[in-house]
Design a protein that fits this description.
Layout (H helix, E strand, L loop, with lengths): L2 H24 L7 H4 L3 H23 L12
């Protein structure tokens, strides 16, 4: 998969997690994420936080250039 697809996936995951937390403060939920709150509100909140963190990590890893790190520290 290309960098663009991973970046899009990470952005969507982090965005949906953040938006679902903000909307839950108002009392609105995404219909496809209601199953997260069926296990309890704390579990739903933690799962949404994990969605945000995982999305940010995917974005960071997708934008990293691992090939350029071989020569670090060598003069």
């Amino acid at each position: 998969m290309s960098k663009g697809i991973f970046s899009l996936l990470g952005f969507l995951l982090a965005g949906l997690g953040f938006l679902s937390i903000v909307l839950s403060l108002v009392g609105v939920q995404f219909s496809f994420l209601t199953w997260l709150d069926s296990f309890g509100r704390l579990f739903g909140f933690v799962a949404k936080l994990i969605m945000i963190i995982a999305g940010i990590l995917i974005l960071y890893i997708a934008q990293s250039d691992f090939k350029g790190e071989e020569g670090i520290g060598e003069y």
